[in-house]
């Protein structure tokens, strides 16, 4: 419980510090709806060498154990372009079933675990150490402004904010509604902070 409040306090302090950058991401005219809107080849040409993917919302609806079936080809394409050792899954829920899935289907793609949750930049910093790549060559894809996007601002890595995350209201209505509400709240909060 204490850890939760410490993280909340840290999030608010960092939100205040990075409010203009967060507002920029929030107000970007060209939104990325889904992860498949991202062309691995194009990213690579723009100087990105390491791709870091959030799981919930980005690769599947909340709480799922595997990425959406339709993403399999896109993930293969990423592995082809970046190399499996330059792709990471950075989720605040690194479930064993998710780790096993990548071991089986996209071997070499690593799931970061045992680090402090986003928005702490620990996971991204670990990826910089593992790959030896500078922050400017790393891109995080995330659907949450005050966890993933904020962590990217703190670590100064590139970020792609997913505006239409995967949801499955039928399967997990309470959890999904909670996260939909959270997304609305964090957008408002960023707008409010950006006027300070
Ligand atoms: Mg997410």
UniProtKB/TrEMBL annotation:
Organism: Beggiatoa alba B18LD
Name by which UniProt lists this protein: Putative hydrolase of the HAD superfamily
Keywords in alphabetical order: Hydrolase
GO molecular function: phosphatidylglycerophosphatase activity
Xref: Gene3D superfamilies: HAD superfamily/HAD-like
Pfam family, one: PGP_phosphatase
């Amino acid at each position: 419980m204490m850890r939760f409040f410490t993280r909340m306090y840290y999030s608010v302090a960092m939100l205040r510090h990075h409010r203009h950058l967060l507002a920029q991401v929030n107000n970007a005219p060209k939104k990325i709806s889904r992860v498949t809107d991202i062309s691995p080849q194009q990213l690579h040409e723009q100087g990105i060498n390491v791709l870091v993917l959030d799981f919930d919302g980005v690769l599947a609806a909340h709480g799922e154990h595997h990425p959406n079936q339709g993403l399999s080809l896109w993930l293969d394409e990423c592995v082809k372009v970046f190399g499996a050792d330059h792709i990471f899954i950075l989720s605040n829920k690194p479930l064993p079933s998710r780790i096993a899935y990548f071991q089986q289907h996209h071997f070499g793609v690593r799931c970061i675990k045992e680090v402090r949750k986003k928005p702490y930049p620990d996971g991204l910093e670990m990826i910089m150490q593992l790959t030896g790549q500078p922050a400017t060559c790393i891109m995080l894809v995330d659907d949450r402004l005050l966890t993933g996007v904020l962590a990217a601002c703190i670590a100064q890595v590139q970020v792609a904010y997913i505006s239409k995350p995967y949801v499955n209201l039928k399967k997990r209505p309470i959890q999904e509604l909670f996260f939909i509400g959270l997304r609305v709240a964090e957008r408002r909060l960023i707008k409010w902070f950006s006027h300070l």
